[in-house]
Structure formats: C-alpha cells, structure tokens
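Sample pair:
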Amino acid sequence: MQYEPIKRAVGLFFSGSLLARKFLYFLTDILLLRTWHIKKALRNIRNMIPANASILDAGSGMGQYSWRLSKMKKTWSIKGIDINCSEIDDCTRFFSGAGLSGRVRFSCEDLTLFREPDTFSLVLSVDVMEHIADDEKVFSNFHASMRDGGILIISTPSDQGGSDVHDDDDESFIGEHVRNGYGIDEITKKLKRAGFTRVEVIYTYGKPGALSWRLSMKYPVKLLNISKVFFLLLPLYYIPVLPVAMILNYLDVRLTHKTGTGLLVFAYKEKR
C-alpha cells in the first residue's frame, strides 16, 4: 500500500492559501492519533525546555509539528528538516506568509548526514525512523546535535502489529517503510549505544487506538489507492466516523497500554 502519494495529494490540495494550510493542521490535530500523543508529550516536557531553546523537527513533512511548536512558546527557535525538498519549499512559503520565518526555518536534509553539534534542546521525530534503514547513524546524529540535558521524542510503529504487520506473512500497510516496527528493547539499546543515558518507552495505539486507526486512516487510504475519486466521498465518510475516532483517540491517550502498535520514546542526553 502506497501512503506517500496520498499524503502528497492531500498536502497539495491544502497548500493553496494560508487558511487552507491552517485548516489542514487543524484536521491532523483532531484526526491523527499520533498527534494526540505528541501534543500530550510536548505539554508534559514543555517546562523542561529552556525559554530560548533551539528545537529540531526531524522529518518535518508538511510542518504540522513545527506549527504546533511555534505556538507553544514564542521564544523558541525551530528548525524543520526533511529529505523531501518540495515539502520543505511548501513549508518555507507557508511559514513566511504566516510571519514566522524569523524563528521557524526549514532545510532539505538527509538525517543520516545531518549534524549541528550541541545545538538543540529538543529533537522531535514523528513517524520517520521506520523509513530509514541506517537508524543508528541517525540516533548518533541526534545525540551529537543536542545540547547537554536535551530531550529526544520519537513516535514510531512497534513490533506488536505496527505497520499493520501481525505475523511473518503480512506485508507493511505502508509500502515505504523499511522496517515494520521496533521492539522496546531494540530501540532502547540502539539509543543507548548512540550515547543517550536514559530512555523511556511507552506503547501507544492500544485497543482503542488500533480501532481508531483502522476507521480513520486504513480504510480511507485503501479506498484512495483504488481510485482518487474517493476523495469526493471522504467528507461523507468522516461525518459519522470522526466523532467515534475522536472518542477512541481520547481513550488511547488516557489509558496505559500493556501492548500497542505504536511506541512513544523519550531519550535524554546527560547533563554535564
């Protein structure tokens, strides 16, 4: 299943004006469960980040998390990087038009090569690492680019059904993934080898979240892969589905899960 072409088509549709782009960010805030978990995580660590911090949005995509970070504290400086240069250009135009180019900037970069030593107090990487084969190189680059006492937050599929893979015969729902998901021990060991002294990992997308994801993402994307005509029917589909998905998202964020198809990772660089 190809997800990126659908994502690009949605981004293109909402890129025509500042209002359209803001509406896209609003939709991702209420629809995507990972956004709910990231919002909670950022609220929890907000006071741990210095007022004059530099923050890296590593794999910034359409810029929705850079937008949220820019609204959380007006003294933060945010850098979004992505390997997709067309998305970087779109974000640069939008944030410039929104009057934020002074403290939010974007650059087309490869995370396996990117390093800015001792720069960032927070690195955020949402649904990126499952696309990168040389993950340990990226983790090392993150660690080198962070200031002492900095925090890394990663959202990624788990090996407990992430990418909709439940046994050896299943293929990833997202064709662009190079791995189906991480185990908690695996990602913890890799991050510690990269130099992080403390790593905390929790499961996301438990039973409520898995159901929400199927209703709000999997089934619509499957239809859109059949024909783009289904774009016209999406509003009718989401009228009954969206309230149910939001309730399920709320439950997923509030509950503690013994297992889940997603992981939320917090890694800390030691203070010296």
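Confidence is low (pLDDT under 50) at residues 165-170.
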